[in-house]
UniProtKB/TrEMBL annotation:
This is AAA+ ATPase domain-containing protein. It is found in: Mitochondrion outer membrane. It is a single-pass membrane protein. Residues 303-312 have a biased composition (Acidic residues). Residues 49-189 form the AAA+ ATPase domain. One of its GO terms (molecular function) is ATP hydrolysis activity. GO terms for cellular component: mitochondrial outer membrane; peroxisomal membrane. Residues 293-302 have a biased composition (Basic and acidic residues). One of its GO terms (biological process) is protein targeting to ER. Residues 279-318 are annotated as: Disordered. Pfam families: AAA (PF00004), AAA_lid_3 (PF17862).
Amino acid sequence: MEVVSPHDIPVTFEDIGGLDDIIEELRESIIYPLTMPHLYASHSSLLTAPSGVLLYGPPGCGKTMLAKALARESGACFINLHISTLTEKWYGDSNKLVAAVFSLARKLQPSIVFIDEIDAVLGQRRSGEHEASGMVKAEFMTHWDGLASSTASGGSQRICILGATNRIQDIDEAILRRMPKKFPISLPNAGQRRQIFKLTLRDTKLDRSKLHDGSSAFSLDTLVRLSAGMSGSDIKEACRDAAMVPVREHIKAAKASGQSMRGIRSEDVRGLQTDDFFGRKQLRKIEPEDDEPRTPESGKTEEVEEFEDADGEVAAQA
Ligand SMILES: Nc1ncnc2c1ncn2[C@@H]1O[C@H](COP(=O)(O)OP(=O)(O)O)[C@@H](O)[C@H]1O
Ligand SMILES: [Mg+2]
């Protein structure tokens, strides 16, 4: 368990691509009621922050990121509850830990208790599950319900349990009921992928020139099209891989021309091109039928043929 100061979190809502609608809803349903109770709770008891919010969807689409940004921008105390603290300890102690978490959250409120991969702690009762683990769950739910009941008695609790999961189907009915606000974070569509590419490449040098066939050397449209079905995290990795290509190329060229490594300046490295992504350059070199004119150093083709020959020999020997 760790208590995080909002100022120490590097992620902001601006770093998250394509989830503006969800961010706005999170602001309305969690941040404002938690941090400006005078505006909400005094108006109607219906307007208090929900005691539970769940972010769910496939991995790598920004759930953890959203939680972090929420912590930073809410200014609420953020308690990051690691699953391991609840499950790896002696079971007897776990109950006390659960009580301690809620007591801490109450003392530090307004606070958000974040449980990442919540299915792992509060998942469905599986057959053969340790009995004590069920007790931890029960203890957790009792405290959780306590949040709502003390609100009813006048002293409003400003504590929100925020969960994230890749497997909503593994979560207990009872838990789901306690998280009335559920936000699906699904794989990004084309518009969202465009946003994520823009954000991820915001400080990367891009090749703004035109190729000989008139198309742009760097085309965001093409990348958006090629990345269909990818998650935000896949896109980030693809950008990281692609960004390496011009640097690697530059170092190789410098070595070949006998230039010392010290003399290499980052300004001299060319900008990023569409072909640096998804290994497209290699593909083009291997497939001669591609419309790109063959470059003089298309030695790659020979290498492939050699490789195939060697393979053939091995096959013949076997
Ligand atoms: N919508 C997004 N905008 C920008 N980056 C993203 C987005 N979604 C995912 N990423 C990148 O992928 C990484 C993993 O995302 P994360 O929030 O941990 O996914 P999840 O918790 O949904 O599995 C992030 O650190 C970020 O670099
Ligand atoms: Mg996550």
